[in-house]
Amino acid sequence: MKFRSYGLLVVLVCTAVLLAGCTGSSSAPAPAGTATAVPAGNPAATAAPATDNLVPSPTDALPDQNKVSVIVKEKDYAAKIPIEFDGGMGQIHVKKIDVTVYLANGGMKTGTIPPNKGASIEIEGTKQTDRVVVYITFDNGDYKKTNDVLSPYRSRG
User: Fold this and answer.
1) Which of 8, 45, 65, 68 is deepest in the core (most CB within 10 A)?
2) How far apart are CA 63 and CA 130, in angstroms?
3) Is the pTM of this model over 0.70?
């Protein structure tokens, strides 16, 4: 008799689970970074640039023997962003300086600064706020993020 009631209980639980799964509606949001369909003819729904890449995140702390400085200067009127390697106590250990600019229009541009004090590059941004991220590779293999800043466009006046 016990076996029969356990069997009946298992069948009832399985039936309840199946029915609950079939009648529920999925209202889970789409994962970040995925495109969602927009019905045609909806004037309120316009494509907006991806802003996920325009949020700065924390940078890495450098040990004293690797302290260096990279300066992200103010964007000029032509929307060019100057980035300069300012050297430091650990400049002898720097092998490579990678710069990534996440553009307000969803694009991305990259560049490399030579590891010489005073070396710089200009990367063309947009006439909106862009994000500049700088990574430095050291001779011991460390790869550290030293800068992660927003670069707003400055208007005249």
Assistant:
1) 68
2) 29
3) no
CATH architecture of 64-151: Sandwich (2.60)
- Please write the tens of the pLDDT for every residue from 82-117: 999 999 999 999 999 999 999 999 999 999 999 999
- b (16+ CB within 10 A) / e for 90-126: bbebbeebebbbbbbeeeeeeeebebeeeeebebebb
Pick left, alpha or beta for residue 104 (phi over 0 → left; psi -120 to 50 → alpha; otherwise beta): alpha
Contact 101, 131 (CB under 8 A): yes
Nearest by Cα to 80 from 149, 135, 147, 153: 153
* Domain residue ranges in the chain: 64-151
